[in-house]
Structures
1.
Amino acid sequence: MQLMSRRLVLAAAGTVAMAALARKPRAAGAGRSELGDLSALKPTDPPKQLPEITFVDAEGQEHHLDEFRGHGMVINLWATWCVPCVAEMPALAGLAKTLAPDDIAVLPLSSDRGGAAAVRKFYAAHEIGSLPVLLDPKSAAARAWGVRGIPTTIIVDKQGRERARLEGAANWSTPAAAAKVKALISG
């Protein structure tokens, strides 16, 4: 019986070791080099109207998606505890700076239960100053929009229609990413 238990333990350890080696690396949260490109960005064809949602800003003021109609939007659903989200946020901050002159808003909706304080602390630690503190603590947007996990980024045109969606972290700070977003919003 003891011999059988040792064999099971060794077999299980070997399986775990092989699975760990074969697994794709995950974003570690440190650098942009670990982020993927936009190849996972899936166009929404035909573009579809997003269901209305409500979210709050750092002061607790309620906002509606409809308030941003007439502007392009890059909506990112994320959380400070999500490792790929942490890696992606500096790239989204870069995208926000690049797209601001084109009237395209980057709206990061945090699902953190710690509220604005958690997001402010995260922004300070990562030197992110170009993104607003926006909260969706009950993940109402994710449910309304059929999001399967975070981070998820949704590109929305000026008519409030979803044009594309990307599940997972990506390097949004490249010129190619900004050009792709502009093309989708104006398309």
2.
Amino acid sequence: MKKIAGKLAKVSGHGSKVDSQTLYDQWAGRYNTELINEYGYIAPFITVDKLKDFHLDKDIEIIDVGCGTGLVGLELHKLGYSNIDGYDISQEMLKAAKKTKIYKSLKQVDLNLDSFNPNKTYDLLICVGSFGYGALGPKAFINLLKLVKSRGLIMILMNSEPFISENYQKYILELEKQKLFAIKSIDDRNYMSKLERPGKLIIAIKS
């Protein structure tokens, strides 16, 4: 089984301390090639494929949090969704996403900031690969919830290692006790076909 290296290694493992904006700005040009060709990155496909279970209207408003180069947007587009906005911390990643011509709006946003206050809410929030060491932390869940309409769908795929080591389950359950959202499922999914890369696919409904 292939081992991780390069930029992926820098965002892997407990204690990774990186400046996400700088790292992803530097990575944008080779991100798709490295993740897809070298590691078999299938997280966007796994997450969007799960969306089929919900039979949502194709005209729903979608926010792709941590949209990166637009891989999730491309998968959504294949299913006929076209009303998609994207947030990312990296301006270079946003430039790459813009080239897909899929997103209606793209914005540079740091969702770790307590001051975050969106001017729009969405029917579906999808966040793939943005939670983890040196990236979004557990407290960013509050900001994600701000982006979702009541009864809106939330789909998050993240690496299992920080989910376990930083006790995301406890934090999520506390938010659920506050009736901020309802967890529908937390499933184990390996999200790289050429690498053992366990992930957690979290599905929830905003209260």
3.
Amino acid sequence: MMKDSDRRNSELETVSVRPMASADLEAVWQLENQCFSDSWSMKLLADGLKGRYDRFWVAEMGGQICGYANLRIIAGEGEIERIAVDSRFRRQGIGRKLMDKMEKSAAAEGVTDMTLEVRESNMAARKLYESFGFAEEGRRKGYYHNPLEDAVIMWLRRA
């Protein structure tokens, strides 16, 4: 009999991360609405996908988009703007795969420093970011709404 951890590892191997395409917009927008209280509009996603500063990826398993990530690169610095995993697929390493893709893509473009903001209470995300070398460097008071909460500003500095 296969253990749950073995089954999860086997399923994770079937998760692929690829560049987002315009055909993915609807599924990504659905993830936005599921994962964020301040979800982005379809237009904002579409504009970002066409923009020169943003890089988007989707995580896909069995033909279904189960996560997505957005990295913005400006003036040699990277900002992780979004990372979302469908609630049905959390705690399976999909966020880690997306983070790995963003980090490798940034490094390939010569980016050494990256930043992000995360809800103070989102300990799972904070631990993930710390495992990639991000460290807290500041806070934005009352940054998030629904519920009102501080943002923790984290940086990965390699320069």
